[in-house]
Amino acid sequence: MLLLLPFPAATQPYRTAPHTAQPYAPRSAPFCCCCVATAAAALPIVAIKQLDRNGLQGNREFLVEVLMLSLLHHPNLVNLIGYCADGDQRLLAYDYMPLGSLEDHLHYISPGKKQLDWNTRMKIAAGAAKGLEYLHDKASPPFGDNTHVSTRVMGTYGYCAPEYAMTDQLTLKSDVYSFGVVLLEIITGRKAIKNSNTAGEHNLVAWDLNY
């Protein structure tokens, strides 16, 4: 669940925090339900992700995500501001992106809005590559090495490397595969997973391998 709250409210215990939110369509796992909250003009807005209690990610995976993201600070990465573990609620507070996500601009274009031009797409791809380079080579400690991370950090269907899905072992190559899927989305404008009954159209990577 994604909420946009004034930062002081986001840091209050879940049971006492004000929740004035308007839902819109959920899109990605393992978090579900997206909402936008009203806030006083003088207070900063943050994006809150709420763990889907019916999903596959548990407390251990939530803790791993908090520990990993709290170490990251880079212009091309969304900052984790804080988290909440109150009762059975698990929340993550991030910087809010007022212009929306890449997914919004590629696949959910508002009426009257233009598609991203080629130069903008390449700038986005370069920025994502810089963020990935930071994670692998410049973060302290770097995320990934010559072995693997076996703690299950749940990914989004369509972006996970096949070997990660089969072994639960996360490596540098797993990240590069996921980045490659995003790059294909940026170049083609197609979704990673498409609802289609046409053979070869469902998975973007499989579709690309046919050409």
From TrEMBL:
It comes from the Eukaryota. The keyword Lipoprotein applies. It is a lipid-anchor. Residues 1-211 form the Protein kinase domain. GO terms for cellular component: plasma membrane. Gene3D superfamilies: Phosphorylase Kinase, domain 1 (3.30.200.20), Transferase(Phosphotransferase) domain 1 (1.10.510.10). Pfam families: PK_Tyr_Ser-Thr. GO terms for molecular function: ATP binding; protein serine/threonine kinase activity. This is Protein kinase domain-containing protein.
